[in-house]
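queue> pop job 88
queue> type: inverse folding (structure -> sequence)
queue> payload:
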C-alpha cells in the first residue's frame, strides 16, 4: 500500500472511531462489520474531556464492559 493510501486508511479509521466513541454505529455499518475491521463497538470506548479542551478517547477494559453490558428492555413477542 502506498503512503497516500495508508494515510487515507488511517484517517478513515479515525473518523470511524470518533463516531463509535459517541455511542453510535457509523452509518451503513453493523457490529459484525466493525469487528471484521478490527474496530471496537459502541460502548467499548469512552470520551474524556481534558482541561485544555481536547477530548481523549479511551478503550474500556473488557472486565468493566461486562459490568455495564447492554441489555435490551424490549419485551419478547
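queue> result:
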Amino acid at each position: 500500500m502506498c503512503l497516500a493510501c495508508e494515510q487515507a486508511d488511517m484517517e478513515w479509521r479515525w473518523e470511524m472511531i470518533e463516531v463509535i466513541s459517541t455511542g453510535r454505529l457509523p452509518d451503513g455499518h453493523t457490529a459484525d462489520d466493525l469487528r471484521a475491521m478490527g474496530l471496537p463497538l459502541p460502548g467499548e470506548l469512552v470520551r474524556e474531556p481534558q482541561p485544555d479542551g481536547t477530548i481523549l478517547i479511551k478503550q474500556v477494559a473488557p472486565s468493566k464492559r461486562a459490568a455495564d453490558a447492554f441489555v435490551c428492555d424490549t419485551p419478547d413477542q
